[in-house]
Amino acid sequence: MRILLIGKDGQVGWELQRTLSPLGKLLSLGRQEVDLTELEAVRSCVRLYRPNVIVNSAAYTAVDKAEIEPDKARLVNELAVQVLAEEALKLDAWLVHYSTDYVFDGRKQAAYVESDQALPLSIYGLTKLDGENAIRHSGCKHLILRSSWVYSIHGANFPLAILRRAIEMDQIDVVSDSFGAPTSASLIADITAQMLYRVTWDQLLKESASGIYHLVATGRTSWYEYAKYLVGLAKKKGLPVKVASNKIFPVSADTYKTGAVRPKNSMLDSKKLCSEFGFVLPEWKIDVERFVNELVMPKPL
Ligand SMILES: NC(=O)c1ccc[n+]([C@@H]2O[C@H](COP(=O)([O-])OP(=O)(O)OC[C@H]3O[C@@H](n4cnc5c(N)ncnc54)[C@H](OP(=O)(O)O)[C@@H]3O)[C@@H](O)[C@H]2O)c1
């Protein structure tokens, strides 16, 4: 099996390099090798490699900046994805793609299921939804995995930002009225590889598994509770945290002025994924603890 991974240097892409390699002959590309704003280069790349599977973990992920450069966000998150889908269809290849809770408006009280109506609040969310639709309408075999609150020790994310602030500052404010489930890039990459293994080898799942799946760790938290849990763990494990636990203050998301509006409910329901593939997803705290352990681990060099 020939696998083409695009976006190898992102949080999820980095982990995919590890989990996809036992599945076949893996070609991992970053922005240097293929820039998704250059649509003909994207097409030529797929035609040259002729993969059986394309995994696209690259995306325009600068949520606030997308509001001021919507054309670029659209190029990467929709038009390049459409090219990948067209080429996947011609090759009869699987296309694996990632999407987000930002396709929803966050007004639902319960966790979102795949069939809930998407109503993005931001340009980022809209371009990600348009990318999903481009894949669905292309007719190619696809796995679209929607996740939320993604983090890893490589990359820019909430837990790294919180821990930096906790080390430098005496007090921090954290949003307490937005809810979700922190999901590690490694969990996403592990599940991706297992899904691919199943859809490419298991006669029962072949083709019929094509579709959208929600993929998040289990449990529910707010950014505020998440930050408190992280800082507590970091302190226990010896990171030089300055902020006292009673100096982490809850604030409303409305007190922050951001370029893009974000959904307040980011909860996604992964039942469809678990029932169709037989997965048991871990509680969000498990990988967060692992993340902190990795941060405090002594560096051998
Ligand atoms: N992060 C989250 O909280 C979150 C939540 C839900 C869903 N998702 C989705 O999950 C997927 C993976 O997210 P992530 O957190 O791994 O993202 P990430 O860390 O921001 O990585 C995105 C990657 O895309 C690459 N990229 C951006 N523009 C490109 C272009 N024009 N050409 C080629 N590569 C380009 C970036 O390259 P450089 O390294 O050169 O910048 C980066 O390596 C995305 O589809 C995202 O929408 C993310």
Associated small molecules: NADP nicotinamide-adenine-dinucleotide phosphate
CATH superfamily grouping of one domain: NAD(P)-binding Rossmann-like Domain
Category from helices, strands and their pairing = alpha/beta
> What is the arithmetic mean of pLDDT?
96
Structural Rg: 19 Å
Relative helix content: 40-55%
Report strand order across the widest sheet: 2-1-3-4-5-10
CATH class of one domain: Alpha Beta
The biggest sheet, with number of strands, parallel, antiparallel or mixed sense and barrel status, is: 6 strands, parallel
What is the string of SSEs from the N terminus onward? EHEHEHEHEEHEEEHEEHEHH
Examine the coordinates and then state which fold CATH places here, giving the name of the CATH topology of one domain.
Answer: Rossmann fold
Low-confidence segments:
none
What overall form do the CA principal axes indicate? globular
Fraction of residues in β-strands: 15-25%
Query: How far is the first residue's CA from the last residue's CA?
Result: 36 Å
Number of helical stretches of at least 4 residues: 9
**What is the number of E strands?**
12
